[in-house]
Amino acid sequence: MLGGVILEMGLVVLGVGVGLLVVLGVVLMMKWVNGMRYMRRKELPPGSMGFPLFGEIVKFITQGPIFMKMQRARYENMFNTHIFGCPTVISMDPKVNKYILLNEGKGLVPGYPPSMRNIIGDKNIAAVHGPTHKIIRGSLLSLIGPPVIKDHGLHEVDTIMRSFLHNFGDDIDNGKTTSILDIQEKTNEMALVVSYKQILKDEPAWLYESFKLEFDKLVIGTLALLIYLPGTNYYYGFQGRKNALKMLKTVMAKRQSKSLGDDMLTALLNKEDPKHSLLSDDEILDQIITILYSGYETVSKTTMMSMKYLHDHPKALQQLREEHLAIRKGKNPEDPIDWPEYKSMTFTRAVILETSRLATIANGVLRPTTNDIEVNGWRIYVYTREINYDLVQYLEPFTFNPWRWLDKSLESNNYCFIFGATNRVCPGKELGIFKISLFLHYLVTRYRWEEVGDATIVKEFCTDMI
């Protein structure tokens, strides 16, 4: 009897072992077939394609820079992979990357991961090129460019930012002078609130709360696996887009019928303005989502990281605080900032530029290939992180040194790609710097902060909006 039981258990173990070997064999076969499918072309660099459908996207997103470092050690500066549902060549070579970013018209056009394109919208500025890009870029610059910031946006953003920073005090309980805040959560909220109120200034507060819930879903889906099934991040994000657009369309219909409002949406709907008259309703909706998403991702993370770097570098924090205390000298607590005062924030701008370079909020950009070059149908992922750490461009590139940017020629250098290149320089660059500057102004003149517990930087992957 005992022998029979042992024999049965042995057969079960053997069966499980054989089953696992079969599964492992099938998995390895699928990986080999997927590699053979794409690796026949001699002009391609070495690499690995991962598994059918998924490729290596899970490693790419979850491991981030660690994945890139491991692949670089194995294949050097250029290698191929399969991410975002498409075969992709990843370039970590600064010289090659500079060429790609400066030569959009030579078979390398802007592109998006399919999940991001579908959720942000295929008519947004970063997903189009040629004449359409020119029209949309002109429209956006008329809303968020430096002249508009000076004439209209300064007072508006200053008012919103003062109110937001004042409300930091709401988190202080029972008359205490200190409070523990989640800075990532707070900077995310700041970035969305400011952009939302610029676009939909006169809408009721309840609409913002409802919109925020759907927008948060949208953000989650932008870099998800392209699987449209309930329970997946992509499905969740796409539902967020649908619901957010439904709200925006309701507001648009109301504005179009009554010509109400004094904000970005009203400006976009003004068909008598030649800068916006050529935009369709779908293009307007995609531009609104783009402004909200790009500001949310870059402004929030750059603000958070600037606080981190300033905390870790007391000398820089002291110089920045002195710059802002000098501006507040002779002003009442609620007096707004004027344009000359903002332009005098030279060290603040240097801190923001250095934070953007060192933190590399957007790790890279995608460039699909066309018939003009040999690997048509592939995408090239330009890993801009390497350009930001170029030893030729930046002395001691891994050191936080905002003073380097006091040399104005560094920002205007042809190989400074922190905000994009040529006609793909981010149209919201100056608006983003402006928002962060005002946040830091009211932060350092009203508060001091310390880290609580272990503050570990977790690097997320993000593609640029250029």
Main sheet: strand order: 1-2-4-3
Instruction: Using the CA coordinates, give the radius of gyration.
Output: 25 Å
DSSP helix fraction: 55-70%
- Give the overall pLDDT as a whole number: 81
Q: Please, how many helices?
A: 18
- Strand content of the residues, in percent? under 5%
- How many individual β-strands? 4
| Shape estimate | globular
Order of helices and strands: HHHEEHHHHHHHHHHHHEEHHH
Largest sheet: 4 strands, mixed
| Terminal CA distance | 73 Å
Spans with pLDDT under 50 lasting ≥5 residues?
30-36
Question: How are the secondary structure elements laid out?
Answer:
Elements lengths: L1 H37 L18 H7 L1 H11 L2 E6 L2 E6 L2 H8 L12 H7 L10 H14 L1 H21 L16 H17 L5 H17 L11 H26 L5 H6 L11 H32 L1 H15 L10 H5 L2 H14 L4 E5 L10 E5 L1 H4 L19 H5 L16 H18 L20
Parallel strand pairs: 2-4
Antiparallel strand pairs: 1-2, 3-4
Helix pairs in contact: 5-10, 6-7, 7-8, 7-18, 8-12, 9-10, 12-15, 12-18, 13-18, 15-18
Explain what this protein looks like in three dimensions.
It is a single chain. The chain is mainly alpha-helical and 466 residues long. It has 18 helices and four strands. Residues 30-36 have low confidence and may be disordered. The chain has helices spanning 2-38, 57-63, 65-75, 94-101, 114-120, 131-144, 146-166, 183-199, 205-221, 233-258, 264-269, 281-312, 314-328, 339-343, 346-359, 385-388, 408-412, 429-446, and strands at residues 78-83, 86-91, 364-368, 379-383. The termini are far apart. Strand 1 (78-83) and strand 2 form a beta hairpin.
In short, what is this structure?
The chain is mainly alpha-helical and 466 residues long. The chain contains 18 helices and 4 strands. The model is unreliable at 30-36 (pLDDT under 50).
